[in-house]
Amino acid sequence: MRRRFGGCGGHGRQLVWVVVCSWVAAARAQAQQAPTTDPVEMAALNAILGRWGTKPPTTWNITGDPCSGTAVDGTDIDNSQTINPGIKCDCSYNSRTVCHITKLRVYSLDVVGPIPAELENLTYLANLNLQQNYLTGSVPSFIGKLTAMQYLTLAINSLSGPLPKEFGKLTDLRSLGIGSNNFTGELPEELGNLTKLEQLYIDSSGFSGPFPSTFSKLKNLKTLWGSDNDFTGEIPDYLGSLTKLEELRFQGNSFQGPIPASFSNLTNLTGLRIGDIVNGSSSLTFISNLTSLNVLILRNCKISDNLGTRFFIQPTHGKLSFMGYPEQFAITWKSTGRRVFDIYVQLGGRRDADRCSLCLFFLKHSLNLDWPTRFEIILGIARGLTYLHEESSVRIVHRDIKASNVLLDTDLTPKISDFGLAKLYDEKKTHISTKIAGTFGYLAPEYAMRGHLTEKADVFAFGVVALETVAGRSNTDNSLENEKIYLFEWAWGLYEREQAIGIVDPKLDEFDSEEAFRVISVALLCTQGSPHQRPPMSRVMAILTGDIEITEVVTKPSYITEWQLRGGNTSYVTSTNYSGSTTGGELREQREIDPLTPSPTITGVTYDGR
């Protein structure tokens, strides 16, 4: 008689079936067991957060184990304000029973103190973000043990001391951000071992000395921000061999010139910010090969007078024609605490009908702007001219300030454009005698009649533009009734009758009458017949902002009286139905072209002053 064995079923010896059943039970139990965080890493994480006085969010630690909840699901913690600090874990280890911490984010939580020693135990970290805190002390050398690291940012802290050479052991690193710290010394040559690196942010970090030659091995680099340090020596020629570069920022250092011609190989470059070059004259011919370039910035160059002169004279005299596009320049002034002086080259060929909404006035087109916006635009133009005339390292007279050369960006920030007629102005001279060039309706009398050029010619033109901005129309409009055709004469008539506010754009339902009167008064002061009666732009700014009152006696200029006595208004102001015509030695009609002309190649060249 045979004995049947139960349990797992089947036949055989009892011992065999006991073993088999044990295996099955163990496998089933293992399959049901939830993975847990490596205990060493869990202890390290708790110690780190404890030292920094931070607590994990409730959505992270739902089971008492760090690697749970949002740490293991598909939640994006990079863009979450509620999951901070945050971690991500990989629970695929040891048959899915062990989780390792692969990502730690402690972003902008005002944590204070050194980088904790316990961080050394998070050896599986691939992504570490400690940006924008108050971390102090040096970066510990154990950073080199975190060899799984791919994305590391310690930016915007107060870290100090030399950068440890052990960074060179993180050979899987793709992005490194250590900008805005207080490091000292040179960059370690070992950083050249990071051949997978695509992004390197070392701006405003305190580094000095030459750029390491080993960086020539970083062939995968796409972004390099090295601005506002104290790098010295020549700008490395090998940078031209890093052909994957898309953005390069080197302004604010102490490099020796010139800019390497090898930069012509950087055909993927979309942004180049470079400047503060000491000694040496740089050619910009390499730009012609950079077909992807959107913005070229030359910032507050500590350069020779020769290079500074060439930078402004070349565009003015058409010596950049190798690009094959017409030259269009714009200055942007943004009041952000740090003064920014931008010259943008806008190139291309879209028709003006597609672009007129971007300029202040264009023929009969204009933007329907409220009063606060108009006032800010007037202030913005005044700020830009103040910089050109009084604050720039070289004094510049624009010579063609007019409404159609005031462009508005998407934030309605005004940009003074088209520097094709700009002149460098020697401050040792009282004036420049030159051929007349500019636009009818905006030319100062002394310049239009005698070729006597000073920055007060720009002040005059500013007054015209300010008046146009208040009135919401060009200075000449033949479609209006006779007394309103010429904005100047109409404004003076109203001013003398103490009705100056009458020129305010009728489309404005609400406006600050005090501000409007102040702008009108400033505009009339800026357009006085004698240049000596016109205030400098810094005083214009002070009047507009209410820091000082207008104390000068404003009287109708004699040139307006002379026009009226002649019975015609065509001796100075154009008789066309738009704002004016451009002159260039000979007077010629204004081309109906908006200066903002985007290009498939360069859309910006900037001189950015600190």
UniProtKB/TrEMBL annotation:
Boundaries of every Protein kinase domain copy: 170-550
SMART domains according to UniProt: S_TKc
A GO CC term attached to the entry: plasma membrane
PROSITE patterns noted in UniProt: PROTEIN_KINASE_DOM, PROTEIN_KINASE_ST
GO molecular-function terms, A-Z: ATP binding; protein serine/threonine kinase activity
Xref: SUPFAM superfamilies: L domain-like, Protein kinase-like (PK-like)
Pfam families the record matches: LRR_14, Pkinase
Topology with respect to the bilayer: Single-pass membrane protein
Signal peptide limits: 1-29
Gene3D superfamilies: Ribonuclease Inhibitor (3.80.10.10), Transferase(Phosphotransferase) domain 1 (1.10.510.10)
Main subcellular location of this protein, as a coarse class: membrane
Protein keywords: ATP-binding, Glycoprotein, Kinase, Membrane, Nucleotide-binding, Phosphoprotein, Receptor, Repeat, Serine/threonine-protein kinase, Signal, Transferase, Transmembrane, Transmembrane helix
InterPro entries assigned: Kinase-like_dom_sf (IPR011009), LRR_dom_sf (IPR032675), LRR_R13L4/SHOC2-like (IPR055414), LRR_Rcpt-Like_S/T_Kinase (IPR051824), Prot_kinase_dom (IPR000719), Ser/Thr_kinase_AS (IPR008271)
Record's protein name: Protein kinase domain-containing protein
Naturally occurring in which organism (per UniProt): Oryza meyeriana var. granulata
